[in-house]
Specification:
Helix content is about 30%, strand content about 20%. By secondary structure, it is α/β, with parallel strands linked by helices. The strands form two sheets. A five-stranded mixed sheet has the order 4-5-6-8-7, with helices on one face. A three-stranded parallel sheet has the order 1-2-3. Helix 1 packs parallel to helix 2. The longest helix is centred in the N-terminal third of the chain and has 14 residues.
Length: about 170
């Protein structure tokens, strides 16, 4: 199964449409969204193409192929307009004998990790690559600022990096 990973749309229809085009172009089976879908938050400037009412139907149209975790700018009101679950702090994906913990990074991260077993992978949006040790055994921590990667058409390279990291610890 081919996964595409994205994060931090912050209500930008401009970036959401580019993400959707990359998803279709790469022929991914599923899209993992690491939070911050509709709202930009009080600390952030409005992103280019800010139009959350246009992002909602775009994402709802993909609901059967989405897995989403909550970001620090997501709230219960977002769940009222989105037709797929968006309020989980993390998702756990089995990959071989390992688990991938996917999260936004504001609750679970390398300083406050979820319950990881040796060799598990922590995926969030704040760092590039970090090795976290659990019982003296390395766990890979991957994270990305993904919208910029999508715009640069490097989704295949991103998928390759994730797959190689997973193979390394299988």
């Amino acid at each position: 199964m081919k996964w595409m990973i994205a994060s931090d749309l912050h209500g930008s229809y401009f970036y959401a449409s580019q993400m959707q085009q990359a998803f279709e172009r790469e022929q991914a089976d599923r899209l993992l969204l690491l939070g911050d879908l509709l709202y930009h938050g009080p600390r952030n400037d409005l992103p280019e193409g800010y139009a959350p009412k246009q992002v909602m139907p775009l994402l709802n149209g993909m609901k059967d192929r989405l897995l989403c975790v909550r970001g620090n700018c997501d709230a219960e009101v977002d769940q009222m307009v989105l037709e797929f679950p968006v309020l989980a702090d993390y998702a756990v994906l089995p990959v071989g004998r390992r688990l991938v913990y996917a999260t936004h990074g504001h609750v679970y991260n390398t300083k406050t990790p979820p319950p990881l077993a040796p060799g598990d992978i922590l995926l969030h949006k704040s760092l590039l690559l970090h090795i976290l040790f659990v019982n003296d055994f390395p766990c890979i921590c991957l994270s990305f600022y993904l919208i910029a990667t999508l715009i640069q058409n490097q989704v295949a390279a991103l998928s390759f990096c994730c797959q190689k990291a997973i193979e390394l610890y299988q």
